[in-house]
């Protein structure tokens, strides 16, 4: 396996771990760990896809990354507005 394979494998494993933990009701979808696993996992998988120049997965993982980034941003906004009060 190449370093790119390891990168993609790590990313996809993180996404699948988040999904499995949610399925088993260990993590809720709004739990920080769930969002972070998806965020980092999608970034790594997207990066591997960019390196491999495989555009369908760049689109898929890039979208997954943006959705996770949005969820992280919303969590941060909520926490920030709570602390400001």
Automatic annotation (TrEMBL):
Domain of life: Bacteria
Organism: Neolewinella agarilytica
Matching Pfam families: CBU_0592
Spans traversing the lipid bilayer: 6-23, 32-51, 57-76
Domain CBU-0592-like: 5-79
Keywords on record: Membrane, Transmembrane, Transmembrane helix
Name under which the protein is recorded: CBU-0592-like domain-containing protein
